[in-house]
Request: fold
Amino acid sequence: MSTALSYYFNEEHESFRKTIRQFLEAEAIPHIDQWELDGKIPREFWKKFGEMGYFGLCYPESLGGSGLDFFYDVVMLEEISKIFSGGFAITAAVQVFMSTPYIFHHGSDYLKENYLKPAIAGDKIGCIGITEPGAGSDAANIQMRARKEGDHYVLNGSKTFITNGIYGQFVILVCKTNPDAGAAGVSLLVVDLDSPGISKNKLRKLGWHSSDTAELHFDDVKVPAKNLLGEEGKGFYYLMGGLQLERLAGSIMGYSGCDAVLGYSLQYMSERSAFGRTINKFQVLRHRVAQLSAEIESVRFFVLHTCRMHADGKYAVKESSMAKLLSTELADKATYQCLQFFGGYGYMEEYKVARAFRDSRIGTIGGGSSEIMREIIAKMVIDDTNYERAESQTEESKPALETVADIFETLPARFKSEKSAGKNLNVHFQFTSDNYTVSIADGKLTVDKGLQGDANCLVETDDETYIAVETGKMNPQEAFMTGKIKVSDLMQMMAFGGLFKKL
Ligand SMILES: Cc1cc2nc3c(=O)[nH]c(=O)nc-3n(C[C@H](O)[C@H](O)[C@H](O)COP(=O)(O)OP(=O)(O)OC[C@H]3O[C@@H](n4cnc5c(N)ncnc54)[C@H](O)[C@@H]3O)c2cc1C
Reply:
């Protein structure tokens, strides 16, 4: 089905594609049905997968990886998503795209040595523990507590829906080290899944049968303090960065899985006859195939474009969210429609389309649901919320912005009065040096020194942080998540921020 992919994949990528396909044909495909029945994939298989280098394609050689570019990972994920077992694909995807990157980006040498290297080698399987029984989409509301006691943390709480949680060896656990600090009290710990005090319950589910999905309970579990990833209190910020890659991975799995299902359907349609001709001659079915092909191809190229942005180091929040939304929604629609091409046979286990149909359903839920993707996109498109660094400017074109007062002087010129119709806001800013009140009423902006009137929102920070954020030297999310900027009402602040052009 693939056409003209050379924009993104070169000859080496394509020859790597052949190698991994051969590996999957020899080592995985003959066993998939059994693994789906068993509800697990044997450890020995993942060891072989690691030995082939597939867990560490883009990690540096010093860690046991191959130091290749991101499009090798894309090829790997495309190929493992085409073998009609979402459970198989997600097991590897969690390892490569959703858990080990946190150790690579934020882990100490100790954590890299003891968790990342063994994961790349296929000796350890990792997972990511964000979701809790009471906190899924609303991840900032997690209750898992990590209390510091001397040289270790003590964990109490529960996680649920954790992929690889039963048979995996470690979890990147999202927990609260400071429950009073909101998002700025969240930290990430690497936790051995065989630690005393952890109990596990394997969950039964609609699809992804060959993957394990766990409910994990932590009862006074002791974890060495050296297992903290990065800095205490920065976990939510690390997570927000990591989720872009997770969403991109979900997008690749989405379009690639669809592509395989459509190819499988075309084969069936060319063999199945009704009313004296093969069913691929019925116009209504041909048009449905044409429509799906067009949509899969369009989504594939948009996702690959987003992969290119990611590979180039761009923080592509909007594109990754759009890619995840479109690709997983399409996968759901495509598998539904393809099953219809098979008539009653599509409903039978012997036909792989049945498994693809139930496996695709999770795409629009896990890793940020479609509703949450639309929320993020809406904030960026409608409210001008900016999750990226400010656009770069040449040194000469930059106004001198050395003090908070310099920045406040630019506010009138940046004010989008046309967007402010019907909005009444009074925002107080408390800096180290001075205080300001910015009021917006009836499309008019007023900037005053001092704190005037009742505020809808109070922003507290030091001069240095505010200047760094406004001039694009610090990511606003990082400032917020790490508590460097405190905002009393985030929604009001986002509405306020959307009324000004970037510096
Ligand atoms: C098979 C499987 C594997 C998973 N693997 C992992 C894993 O490895 N690690 C992990 O941490 N988690 C994992 N998850 C959890 C998954 O990421 C969550 O299920 C998902 O984030 C949604 O959370 P929730 O289930 O609590 O739904 P809720 O957050 O309770 O949402 C319920 C519904 O409300 C909607 N909703 C919520 N908030 C809003 C809003 N603001 N606006 C509009 N609609 C909204 C949602 O979109 C959804 O439709 C997995 C889940 C499954 C089913």
The chain has four domains: 5-124, 127-236, 237-381, 404-497. The chain has 16 helices and 15 strands. Residues 404-497 form a domain with the Nonspecific Lipid-transfer Protein; Chain A fold (CATH 3.30.1050.10). The pocket of flavin-adenine dinucleotide is lined by residues 94, 127-131, 136-137, 161-163, 205, 208, 213, 362, 365-367, 369, 371-372, 375 (CB under 6 Å).
